[in-house]
Amino acid sequence: MNLAKMLPFASNLAIDLGTANTCVYVPGRGIVLNEPSVVAFNTTQKCIEAVGTEAKEMLGRTPQHLQSIKPLRDGVIADFEAAERMLTDFIKRAHRRTRWIRPRVVIGVPAEITQVERRAVQESTLRAKASEVYLVDEPVAAAIGAGLPITEPAGNMIVDIGGGTTDIAVISLAGLVYSKSVRVAGNEMDEAIIDHMKKAHRLLIGERTAEAIKIQVGSAAPLDEILQIEVKGRHLTEGVPKSVTVEDGEIREALAGVVDVLVHAIRDALEAIPPELSADIYDRGIVMTGGGALLRNLDSRLRDETHLPVLVAEEPLSSVVMGAGKMLMDLPLLRKLGSVA
Question: What is the residue range of 79's domain?
Answer without folding.
Answer: 3-141+319-340
